[in-house]
Amino acid sequence: MGTGPDVALFISGADWHARRLVRALRSAGAAVTRTSLTRCRFSTAHPAGLDIPGFPDRLPDAVFVRTIDAGSFEAVTLRLGLLHALAEAGVPVWNAPRAIEACVDKAQTTWRLQRAGLPTPDTWALESHEAALALVAAEATPECPLVLKPLFGSQGKALRLVGGPDDLPPPETVSGVYYLQRFIGPRSPDSAAATAGFHDHRVLVAGGRALAGMIRRGTGWITNIKQGAKAEAWVPDAEAERLAVAAAAAVGADYAGVDLIADSDGGYLVLEVNSMPAWSGLQTVTGFDLTEAISDAFLADVAARTGRGRAPLRAVGP
After folding, report:
1. Helix (H, G, I), strand (E, B), or coil: what is residue 62?
2. Nearest 5°: CA angle at 290, between 286 and 295?
3. How far is CA 233 from CA 91, 230, 236, 285, in A?
4. pLDDT in tens, 209-241
5. Does residue 235 contact residue 257 with C-beta atoms inside 8 Å?
6. Where along the chain do its domains lie?
7. Collapsed DSSP state (helix, strand, coil) of residue 55
8. The whole model's pTM is what?
């Protein structure tokens, strides 16, 4: 019997990330049970009131949430409720359900970033189609458009530029919610620090530390790796690290992918915070094992909070 914690790893499929997490956690001494939140349930017949596969008479020592399956509003509410119950029972959960909720809802993310005093593009979230038309008429032009994003969405899907009222879709195509953000284009070519083309930056944060970063360079204005952008090696400077760590803290995330974009003054704006980030693209331009770094940060936090196991000794990262 190992001395490490018994970890429940919540996944929706045995992808690259899940396989590497299992290997990294087990190599550091943890026992790992892979399961899905769809298989868990509230149960008054269970001693803890929660029935987690692999834990017939107790709760896991810790939980790592890699992915949550898509589903109906009711199903997702139930799954998040299970995570809330685990956290309230004293089980360390990465990421905590409140952090997942804050990041899934882009409007709440933006509000939390502003509340923390972090720079982010001008953003509006509203329901009224008439008010959205008036906002676009006042704030957008073809030369300086707004970006319309799904309130719940990721990987650069369903984004569109809105340069005027005629570009605004009807409410039923956006689930009745308009999330509009100022478009930040490439920096001026006459800037000494300019980099040609559309690009932004991703910083991976875990355990209050910026682990690594990359430039995401797109062929168009959408710069997500899943939309065809290319990853380039990039070492975040001190300001990028500070903003990324602060952004993760603002939403309560223990690990996160933080998206930054250069502003006109040579600094950065925080675009988004992802509470269930992928890092396979970032790994291709990083010289150490990111999964081990995330695993070690997780296990160190679990050890500090529960006394189960100990902080891993292996050194990773710069």
Report:
1. strand
2. 170
3. 36, 10, 10, 5
4. 999 999 988 776 666 666 567 889 999 999 999
5. no
6. 6-95+293-306, 106-119+192-275, 123-182
7. strand
8. 0.89
